[in-house]
Fold these 4 entries.
Entry 1:
Amino acid sequence: MQIISGKTVVLSVLFMGLMSHARTTVDIQLNMKYSVGGISSFDRHKYINAHSHLSEPDWVGEDELLDILVSDLNVSFGRDNGTMIEYLRQAPEDPDRPGYVDPEYLKNAGRIHRKIIYGSHKAYLHKYDAVNDVMIGGQPHAFLPSPGEEKTKWELGGADAVGEYMGRFLQEFYRNPGEPPTAGQSRPGFIEILNEPLYHFIDGRRGDIRSAKSIFEFHNGAAKAIRRFDPDVLIGGPTMAFPIFEERDFARWDERMKLFIDTCGEQMDFYSLHFYDFNNRGDRARDDYKGSRLEATLDMIEQYSLIRLGEVKPFIISEYGGRDHKLENRVWTALRDWHFLKAATPLTLQLLDRPNMILKSIPFITAKAEWGRKNGVPYNRRLMHQMKERPGRFGEDWIFTDLVLFYELWSDVNGTRVKSASDNPDVLLDSYVDGKKAYVILSNLNPVEETVDLNLSSGMESARIKHLYRVADGPLLEEKTVMKELKSFTLKPEASAVIACSFADSIAITETVEEHKFYASDYNRPITAGRPVEFALNEVQPLTSGEAVLRVGFGREPDRSRRPEVVFNGTALEVPDHYSGSDQPTRPAFFGLLEIPVPIERIKKNNSVEIMFPDSGGRISSVTLQTVDAGLNGRK
């Protein structure tokens, strides 16, 4: 969206739909591999997966749908947050150690689960074993129950007992590396201690006596115990449901994510978070993360992690997508699925921009999710529903919901990432080359059409276009093939597209560019009118060729300026008048990030940055410098 002064905020809300780019140009260098932290390949296991696991009972009897999902749409499985709890509910207490699960029970139950249930009874699933790349996690009310809601007949004895159970579960219920599927499912590489504990214990359960500090200390105790039994699994948290850092002038950051890093940072291998765009959040209308808000959120964590721990720890985004409170807890509608879909691909594109920092990201698309049925109303975000749930249709058979369109859109994408750039921050872009094909992925963040001019190498013979957009009250995935070079394409409002460009010969990748990121030594600084806030960017590798961008994250009340004066090593920078995504007009505060080009000749080993706003209030949350040794990819 275009940056505006505080006085014109109300006007922008009224005319938000008119703020389109006249015409967008995207440049794609098919011969130039784009690497971030040494990673340049599209990893489908990491990004294109379902919030389900191969042996989930939801797939029993759904062989045809399962085969379509895995074989035709190339989807992996990503998360199992139920099996560990199911076995806990049946677990007896260790007769010699009150509060701990009996190890003999875990040994026997694990052997049956591993070798008999998965290894033998579910042998028909072994042909899909390679895509069963799941992480596991604990549910807060099962592992940290409040008085009166214990799920077992006895009470777990705290963090050490929970961690021991999780560690033993990882060892007993999964096969060892190198063993075949007949020995069980492959052992998960990631575990979250608790799923959304702050939402369950603090936001959603008013009056619970637990503090965030006590929940985080529980993470530490459980992590130490897990490692006694499984030193290889990567452990993370806090699996935060709503990372709204800027709330109350960043008090929520201090009380939650900063506190988590301070308390648990040394014990955690990764940070886990959830991101949802809301088409309607309660009665506040739109509340999106996609665009600059997601960038500002992740940059702030990265920067403080480096300051506090001396390292930038990676992320797992174990849930993300779109929601609409006004359509939830009701019968299925195609419109509700559209609100999920219009957020899923742009969020995926932004996570793809950090391949070195994302260990796994999982769109929250569950299987049948019958565990979530309430008062006869099925759960909201699920991949399968019964025929009778669609208007005018009948029968008990299970079919795909419209959420399958996310996987149909992405079904072919593969290959090596190549350098690409959009001149419109509201048209997100990524590109991959695989043999004779190039895949160009586009997402339109604007609620109006955007015409995109494609500037890529000549020689294209044809283009197969998948275009996911809204028609009437639901999504449509339109597919068509153009038997000539495609020079431009018009994205529908909030639509996404995958364009598979075909060439006569294999595309030769002859060059490689590498992206680097450098962090300021300070962060989260208050803003005072007319007073420069100084930051130091040290130990930067100067460039002889390429491009650089200064990334400035900030959060302010809606009526405050969003266009600061920025001076880099004594040179005033030209601050762009656009940032990516929504103006956030219905939120109590704006939280986003500006991406400001920096002349590479101004970059030194040690650099000074001065940022000054014309009015007081809010904070500069992060300052980083992103460089590419030749060219720059992104939303610029």
Entry 2:
Amino acid sequence: MQLHFIESGPALLVEQDRRVLVIADLHMGIESGLERHGVHIASRSAARTGRVLACIEETEPDLLLLLGDVKHNVPVTSRQEYRELPGVLDAFRDRVTLRVAPGNHDGGIGRFLEPGELLPPEGALIDGVGYLHGHTRPDPELFGRLIVLGHHHPVVSLVDAVGCAARARPAYLYTDLDGECLPAPAGAGRTRLLFVPAFNEFAGGIDIGRLRESRLGPLSRCINETTAEVFLADGTYLGSPAALCPADGR
């Protein structure tokens, strides 16, 4: 298996027998959600869709997997989402086979999808790799494999020698599953987790050093801090979260 980090997304291409392009946390319609809080921003859905299409052209995948939170507003579907999502999803499926792992923002997403496109919320195996959004416990079938998940919006804040923090940047966290936190079925073998950053530029994020304590999902509590490694959106290896975020704050 080969993992390719697509910086222009951020997106991930998982290459084995099939080429699976993974995009997490699109949050289409986020502008209407911000408007309800007094923040007025013109819709950037067209630009966001264009970035996804550019990733498709760049990687030529067999499958596009949207890893949850395709839409933003909960518990309702906004007028912006009703207006924009059909065209956005048609643009994707016109170019490549589409699958959606539903997230906690995706109530009612099924009305916009075609038969067979919606995966179970507890995740699915595709080409030997487990995929789920990350707000639910994984299906037991996913243990003993690499599990790719979204939901947590990991970012990393790089600090220079004089202690000035740079802008938080999208990042990936790769780690073993802490088996004491979430025991795997007998004989399942080693389970690894890859937390994928959010695609949406307004979605914000949680610093990787605080991901475990965030308790945002059942798998964030199971990060093995002794094996965890951090990568930037372009695949640059940064080291362990402990080295980036010392416990004493230095």
Entry 3:
Amino acid sequence: MLGGKNKDNQFATGGTTLLAKSVEITGDIKFGGTLEVEGSVKGNVFAAADSDAQVNVRDKGLVEGEIRAPKIMINGHVTGDVYSDKHLELAAKAVVNGNVHYKVIEMVKGAQVNGSLVHIPEGEVAVPAPKAAPKVAPTPIKAESATNT
């Protein structure tokens, strides 16, 4: 029903977001629903651990940073650690340069992991809430003069 109050549908949980091949994002991404990465992300990608959020890094997709999501499917390149709290799939063209933390993993022939595979025991959470970045006060720049003695 259009305009209904059903909060279980995909739009209520974040819908689907596509980062197309021509998109390059610098900075962290927090998302809900499904995130499709065909372009490149220079930053961390994370979703709430208690959600059903899923990130898909497609064959031309690139992420330079951590990925933290309950469900992750990688068929592109990731440079950084990967944390999956529910299900992780590494497809044939997947290349991960970093450690892979998982509860359930599927790895297809051809997938590469240049790091450690770390199983997360039941009862532990792989996707903790991200920590706030410390605030850094700007440092004034001092001019120095050269003295010859």
Entry 4:
Amino acid sequence: MNLVYFIHNGFLFWAAAAEEGTTKPITVFDLLKSGGWVIYPLFFISFLVVALIFYYFISIRISAVWTKDLDRRVENALRKGEISLVSEVIKNRSEGCARLLKEVISFLSKHKDADLESVVAVAEAFGSGYSSLLNQRILYLLDAGVIAPMLGLFGTVVGILRSFGSIAAEPSPMRTLLLAGGVSQALVSTAIGLIVGIVAMFFYSFFRGRVQYLISVFEERSVIWVQEIYLLNKKYKTSPELKTVASSSFEEENNDEIKEE
């Protein structure tokens, strides 16, 4: 109720001032400037929100988890019953499903007698970490959506305190209107914070739905392929080919990590 009162009196102040011709027309830049120093971090957050939105549109895609080309190649390899061919197909792939299969084949190359529970445990551990990374990535947008309105509200409180201080030192009979005008200008930071927060929360909800969809596709394809690779390993348990191919893949990854270090 008090907020409506202040806004109403603020408009009366601007209207009276305009009629008297004592002030210039208020532009958008003047309104932003009246928000005080809080406007600067709000601009930074808004820029960050826009950058995150573009980044998520580029990075959070189905191709990061699974592609039709990967599906076709892996299915052909599994249909031929050759794990070595599967290992070759996923050797230089970066999709989430391909990375999970690398972990499973590497595990089976070191533990050829592993039971299904052990293989599934390895797949679940990798899948859990991969899903957490996807969820963690979009949390920055949620943080921006929460911080922006609070920062805008803080700017309004600072503006109101500044207005009260100015009015206390003003002996003019127009003090009430001056107070209303100052408060209405101070509300600019809250308005901007709410706009940034609403946009951030809207796109957070959108990308959260997309991440859940990617995780469901990742789990669906991974469960099937892990089961098939386990059965193939069980069938060719004595084959030295798996050990050779998987070990070489594992050694290449370790060599890459050593080079990066």
